[in-house]
Amino acid sequence: MKRILMIGTGGTIASSKGEEGLAPALTSEQLLRYVPDVSSFCEVDCLQLFSLDSTNLCPHHWLGLANQLRESYDSYDGFVISHGTDTMAYTAAALSYLVQGAKKPIILTGAQKPISFDSTDSKVNLTDAFICAASDTLHGVMIVFNGKVIQGTRACKTRSKSYEAFSSINYPFLAVLQDGSLLQYIENSYLPSPVFYDRLDEKVALLKLIPGAQAELASLMLERNDALILESFGVGGIPSYDGSDFLGVLERAMHAGKTIVLTTQVQNEGSNVGVYQVGYKIRSCPQILEAFDMTTEAIVGKLMWILGQTNEPQQIHRLFYTPIANDILNYRNRGE
Known about the structure:
27% of the residues lie in helices and 26% in strands. The protein is of the alpha/beta class.
């Protein structure tokens, strides 16, 4: 029988009503009591690492999770992390870079309604997570939610209330679950032993452009951070209207050693900055990294991981365009 470690972090699944609304209250042991059938196919140990609304999770919590996985990896066959939905995709992406090449399943799950509610998705999601954690053919970091198994670097929360909270962006589901049965489509590659990392650079900022946005905001964010992710429009471009000097701001920042990534606000199909004049100069400026089909959550996690390892521009460029956990596919050989 498989041995699974359940790591509790809080979130809606573990929340109870209080005077100021829902807040995490239940431990991982208490959550496990709601799904007694799990004991028929795996043995579970419980650990409460922290108890937070996922809005309050920060990169140092990701490092804490990665460290716990490192310490426990040899003692268990799989892992279930109960987590709030709001930032679950960020955590899944970050763990995909902090724990690379794991053969054992590392499953994040949660719920849109607390497990103590009469009408809740918690019990199904948690049971499905344990089924996946006990699998011999699912590998690495994944989100299991509403019967879908999503690559950790491809998940995005796309619905705020309904049970189908997460989508897989620009990548197929790895598997689906129906009535306790796992139907798997894709098997991830893995290493003989996973590679664990323990450093992140938290000074990564995100600027979502709106019509009329001024370059001074990008300049301010770059002064205070080591990297800036610029969420542009459509297939990607840099504003060049009168009174704006976005490209100049970005070029000066890069000369000062800052890292710039251009992505799109459009969730599906990715960027292609060479299509329009507003993006043409970027295609000829390899220092500006283009995210192509990556999710914003994955870009954030990957940049924090990369800058935690190196500040050398060529290395940053190479690592960004090196596919990790299927995070980037359509990168047009810019990593060469």
